[in-house]
Amino acid sequence: MIWCSDSWVNPERITGTIPGELLVQRNIGNIVPLQDWNFATVLEFALMKLRVEHIIICGHSDCGAIKALDNEKDCDYYISIWLNNAKEAKDRLDVKIKKPETHEEIKKRYRLIELEKILLQMEHLKAHPLVKKTIKERPFPFTACISIS
User: Is 59 helix (H, G, I), strand (E, B) or coil?
Assistant: First the structure.
């Protein structure tokens, strides 16, 4: 499970699982980076050693990463670099919708960026060399890509 690092979102509580049932990789914005050693080691362990059958990318509403992604000038140095892994989601949305003017439009925009970002991270996951290798060796369904409110 690829989960956001926001501390108020607890994967075991939300999924109703007990300790040991989930392998959770948490990071800012539940991002799937193609060039990150930390992420790659967790993915390798999950796929090659544990032979997981499902990978879930789970986002959530009111995510600080989404707000930072949409307001890049407010980002610190390392957060900005990390969020580059999700910037394409914002760019895709910018082409589709007008600039928000009201608080409600801003909230809707954040939700749309969140959903687009999850789809983008699924694309990253499918392009990851470890996932490609796993697919060649055994059936591997991409069954879940969710966003909770």
Answer: strand
